[in-house]
Amino acid sequence: MLGLSLGANDVASAKTKVKTYKNCTALNKDYKGGVARSSSVKNKGGKTKYKPHVSRVLYDANKKSDRDKDLIACER
User: Fold this and answer.
1) The Excalibur calcium-binding domain covers which part of the protein (predicted)?
2) 21 phi and psi, to 5 degrees?
């Protein structure tokens, strides 16, 4: 029974781990339009081709890649 509860904790901790990307090229391979912090943010950087993926946790882990500080990292 003890091993079963440890296994459940391992699964929970694996789900909370968010991927941090080295740069925008790596992030855009998984998310073509970049990552937005929320669905209500507006792009300041001009016209884009793709719609960004919305994820607060993923954006927070990669906000170093948001050069124009519009709450969308690596928009394309």
Assistant:
1) 20-75
2) -95, 150
The partner residues of 54 in beta bridges, in order of sequence, read: 36
Burial (CB count <10 Å: 0-12, 13-18, 19+), residue 26? middle
Name the residue with tokens 């790596």.
Answer: 26
Q: Whole-prediction pTM value?
A: 0.76
With b for 16 or more beta-carbon neighbours within 10 A and e for fewer, the 31-45 pattern comes to: bbbbbbbeeeeebee
Q: What is the pLDDT of residues 34-65, one digit of tens each?
A: 999 999 999 988 889 999 999 999 999 999 99
CA of 68: how far to CAs of 13, 63, 72, 75, in Å? 32, 10, 8, 10
Alpha helices for 1-76 (secondary structure H):
2-16, 24-30, 56-61
